[in-house]
Specification:
The structure is a single chain. This protein is 3% helix and 49% strand. Strand 7 and strand 8 form a beta hairpin. The strands form two sheets. Strands 1, 2, 3, 4, 5 and 9 form a six-stranded mixed β-sheet that branches. A three-stranded antiparallel β-sheet has the order 6-7-8, with no helix packed on it. The radius of gyration is 15 Å and the shape is elongated. By secondary structure, it is mainly β. The longest helix has 4 residues. The protein has one helix and nine strands, in the order βββββαββββ.
């Protein structure tokens, strides 16, 4: 986890999965204000939300995953600028995390970039 880029004092959360064979780290990385948003190749606005990192404790391999959020038209910056980002469980090929707006589920194994898209 040392190589994840996480700096001491930032808000990171840790949890174990797969019978404590995998250590999962989550932490926020980006800002949530429209002036800080990025635009993809299709012209859609998105934010870099954070990182979800998995350390295999048997092989010591670290898998890093960036979480991008594509907001809806009625996105409320203030509501998502604070709040939870933590791993909750991994079961049946799905990994679940809690976000400021609720639970998100990603198929496991994870893609390098995890995208969350809210309807327009």
């Amino acid at each position: 986890m040392y190589d994840s880029g996480y700096l001491y004092g930032e808000d990171a959360n840790y949890g174990f999965a797969d019978n404590e064979k995998i250590l999962i780290q989550t932490f926020r990385t980006g800002s949530w204000y429209k002036e800080n948003a990025k635009t993809d190749e299709n012209g859609d606005m998105y934010y870099e939300f954070g990182e979800l990192n998995l350390l295999d404790l048997e092989t010591f391999s670290l898998d890093r995953h960036t979480v991008l959020v594509y907001p809806s038209d009625d996105w409320e910056e203030e509501k998502t600028d604070v709040g939870t980002f933590l791993f909750t469980d991994m079961a049946d090929g799905m990994l679940r995390v809690e976000m400021p707006w609720g639970s998100e589920i990603f198929p496991y194994p994870l893609q390098e970039t995890l995208m969350i898209r809210f309807g327009k």
